[in-house]
C-alpha cells in the first residue's frame, strides 16, 4: 500500500515539487492541504503517514508557522530534510501576454514569493498592487479564472504549466542564490532511495532561568567536541517576554558518541533537551540549461 504524504498545496507549489522529490508518486500518494498547520496536524492525527512543509528560505529566513507548530502543538519527529532551488517566474493569462508590464494592475502570490522578487517587480511593474494568496499555485489559479483582468502571478513554472498560463520572465528572484529548506515529518523513518549528503540532529533546548551564561555553556558542549552547528535560532516559549527555546541543528546523527556526550553535558547544566529529529539531509541539484 502506498503511503499518504501531506504537503502545502495546491499542486504546482514548490512544496509539491519538494514532496515529489522526497516521495516519488510511484511509492506514495501526495495529498494537498491549504495551510502548514493543517499539514502538520494531519500527520499528528495519523490521517497521513508523512507531511512535507517549508521551514527556511535563503532570502526571507525562517517559516515561523512551521517552527512554532513543531515546537508547541505536535510531537512528531523530523525524518528528512531537502534543500531545494527556488526559481520564481512571472506568469499571465495567454490573453494578456502581449500587454506591456507597466499596464498590469495586480501581482498575486504568496507573501514569501513576492518578498523574494520585490525589487524586480517594482522595477518592471511599478503600478501594480501586491495581492497575497495562500500559495503560489492559488495565485496562478486565480489568474486562470480571470482572463480579462490585467493581473500577473509569481510562482514556479509548474504552476504556469498546470494552469495553462504564459511565462513572461524566469528566474526573476532578486537574489539568484535562492533555496528553501523543506522538512518531512512522520511516525516512522523515511525509506531513502537517494544517498544523503549528510545527517543532522535537530534539538530544542530550554535553558534554566537561574543559570547565568547557560547558552555559552551549551554551545561550549558542542565546540570542544568539534561538532559543527549549522543553525541556531530562538523562538518564544509563549510564557512571557524574554523566555525562549533555542533550536540547534548539529551535523551528526543523534546516536553518535559525541552527540550523546554533548546532550548529556547539556542536561547536567539543568537544560531540558528535546530531540526534534535525527535525519538524512539532501540537496536538489540546480539544473544547468
From TrEMBL:
Q: InterPro entries of this UniProt entry?
A: ACT-like_dom_sf, ACT_dom, Chor_mutase/pphenate_deHydtase, Preph_deHydtase
Which SUPFAM superfamilies does the annotation name?
ACT-like (SSF55021), Periplasmic binding protein-like II (SSF53850)
Task: Supply the EC number(s).
Answer: 4.2.1.51
Q: Which residues form the ACT domain?
A: 203-278
Reactions that this protein is recorded to catalyse: prephenate + H(+) = 3-phenylpyruvate + CO2 + H2O
GO BP annotations listed: L-phenylalanine biosynthetic process
Q: In which pathway does it act?
A: Amino-acid biosynthesis; L-phenylalanine biosynthesis; phenylpyruvate from prephenate: step 1/1
Q: What is the protein name given in its UniProt record?
A: Prephenate dehydratase
Q: Which organism is it from?
A: Thermoactinomyces daqus
Amino acid at each position: 500500500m502506498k503511503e499518504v504524504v501531506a504537503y502545502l498545496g495546491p499542486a504546482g507549489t514548490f512544496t509539491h515539487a519538494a514532496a515529489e522529490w522526497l516521495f516519488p508518486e510511484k511509492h506514495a500518494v501526495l495529498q494537498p492541504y491549504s495551510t502548514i498547520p493543517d499539514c502538520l496536524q494531519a500527520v499528528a492525527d495519523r490521517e497521513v503517514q508523512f507531511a512535507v512543509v517549508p521551514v527556511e528560505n535563503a532570502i526571507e529566513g525562517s517559516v515561523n508557522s512551521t517552527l512554532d507548530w513543531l515546537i508547541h502543538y505536535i510531537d512528531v519527529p523530523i525524518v528528512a530534510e531537502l534543500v531545494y532551488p527556488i526559481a520564481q517566474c512571472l506568469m499571465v493569462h495567454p490573453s494578456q501576454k502581449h500587454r506591456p508590464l507597466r499596464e498590469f494592475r495586480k501581482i498575486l502570490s504568496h507573501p514569501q514569493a513576492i518578498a523574494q522578487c520585490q525589487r524586480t517587480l517594482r522595477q518592471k511593474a511599478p503600478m501594480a498592487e501586491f495581492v497575497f494568496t495562500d500559495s503560489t499555485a492559488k495565485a496562478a489559479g486565480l489568474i486562470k479564472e480571470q482572463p480579462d483582468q490585467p493581473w500577473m502571478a509569481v510562482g514556479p513554472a509548474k504552476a504556469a504549466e498546470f494552469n495553462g498560463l504564459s511565462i513572461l520572465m524566469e528566474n526573476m528572484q532578486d537574489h539568484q542564490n535562492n533555496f528553501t529548506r523543506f522538512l518531512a515529518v512522520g511516525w516512522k523513518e523515511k525509506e531513502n532511495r537517494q544517498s544523503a549528503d549528510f545527517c543532522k540532529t535537530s534539538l530544542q533546548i530550554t535553558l534554566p532561568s537561574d543559570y547565568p551564561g547557560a547558552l555559552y555553556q551549551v554551545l561550549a558542549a558542542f565546540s570542544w567536541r568539534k561538532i559543527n552547528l549549522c543553525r541556531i535560532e530562538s523562538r518564544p516559549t509563549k510564557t512571557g517576554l524574554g523566555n525562549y527555546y533555542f533550536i540547534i541543528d548539529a551535523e551528526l546523527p543523534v546516536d553518535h558518541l559525541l552527540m550523546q556526550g554533548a546532550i548529556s553535558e547539556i542536561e547536567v547544566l539543568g537544560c531540558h533537551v528535546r530531540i526534534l529529529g535525527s535525519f538524512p539531509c539532501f540537496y536538489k541539484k540546480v539544473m544547468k540549461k
